[in-house]
Design a protein that fits this description.
The structure is a homodimer.
Chain A: H1 14-32, H2 39-45, H3 50-53, H4 60-85, H5 89-106, H6 108-116, H7 127-150, H8 158-170, H9 184-197
Helix pairs in contact in A: 1-2, 1-4, 1-6, 4-5, 4-6, 4-7, 5-7, 5-8, 5-9, 7-8
The structure holds a DNA duplex.
Chain lengths: 202, 202
DNA sequence: CCTACCGATCGGTAGG
DNA sequence: CCTACCGATCGGTAGG
């Protein structure tokens, strides 16, 4: 309605609209669940009607797919960098927990969808996402097996120990409050201390 | 349609039918999610049509309520007994993890519903269930604060440490396989070892 | 416990 | 001819 944009860009704001829709879907899926959310609600969040949404998205499932894909890519990248920057397995474990907890803190809705709405995550197109999830878990397992190899860690099956580590961070989506008394880093450091030296007094 | 039942019982098999319905609902909710599950599916699982289900259940939500209530009551009772039978905080922590992991193993569907379908858990009638969930968590917190008081445990905020402990057991519903290579008790003992003495070599 | 339905709302698509 | 939408309605299914 304002003066026309005379720049020669072709697709103008199309990609931004798509990103807005995925963000809206993240909020709506997080609040109502994938099945409980309606395309009309998501459309309303970005200021359009439902049929207009279908000009940007082919199916409801496409939105869930986008949320999962973005999350695992970002989390994997940040975790990879943190691990590579850390000196030894203990520091790598602590760094991974810091990344995971701050990620949960910054992206609560997306993490909620990622961890809670995976019933629809089936079929061919989802294989890639599932593969990336497995690869993320393997990064943590490798920290543990490296630690055992260098003698820094005790000999505990990495596959089971990684479940304990990831559980601490993942479970945060059910209770962690970014506006609460402790920061994500502070919580992560406590979890790292529990994982590394335990609760028993030496 | 067969010969009439002449026994003078009034409600006949009503309680058993009700239990069958709740069990069927547990399976169907676990597989499809609360919103994704239909009353017709649950009815079919117990061999009736949807309208007949409403002779035993007033609302879909009643089934979710029954599942949550049963689970938290049973888990609380078993955990209370295990804690009371253990000699010291370290043994109590290990015993709690054993109860939690075996519970997850024995009641995978119910635990999945309990942990994943709590969006509908709101409003007056749910206050009792939420209160019982809090009470369960407080049992674990007390083990940790008792351990800190007696000098057995290091000084870590019990509210945060309890999140780490409960996370390990709760997260099991996403991966633990009762038919897998390790038993629930074996996994619980590894988790207890991580929680008590950590992964780092002394 | 059944068949026959209801008001509403679902995901998705028609023509314009 | 394009884009970005609209009002209306599609076939099915939800809880009741």
């Amino acid at each position: 309605m304002t003066s026309a944009n005379t720049t020669p860009t072709v697709t103008e704001s199309a990609p931004a609209v798509r990103a807005d829709i995925v963000e809206a879907a993240t909020r709506v899926f997080s609040e109502h669940g994938y099945d409980g959310a309606s395309m009309a609600q998501i459309a309303a969040e970005v200021g359009m009607r439902k049929p207009s949404l279908y000009h940007h998205v082919r199916k409801k499932e496409d939105l869930l797919f986008a949320i999962h894909g973005q999350l695992i890519d970002e989390l994997t990248l940040e975790t990879r960098q943190a691990i590579d920057a850390a000196a030894d397995p203990a520091a790598q474990l602590a760094a991974s927990l810091r990344v995971a907890m701050t990620f949960v803190s910054r992206n609560r809705d997306a993490v909620t969808v990622f961890l809670q709405e995976n019933r629809a995550v089936r079929g061919e197109r989802w294989d890639e996402v599932v593969g990336k999830r497995d690869a993320y878990e393997r990064m943590v397992q490798e920290i543990l097996s490296n630690g055992a190899a260098t003698g820094a860690f005790v000999n505990i099956p990495p596959k089971i120990a990684s479940k304990a580590i990831l559980a601490m961070a993942n479970w945060g989506y059910t209770w962690f409050n970014p506006d609460g008394p402790m920061s994500a880093d502070e919580v992560a450091d406590i979890f790292a201390r529990i994982a590394l030296t335990g609760l028993s007094k030496p």
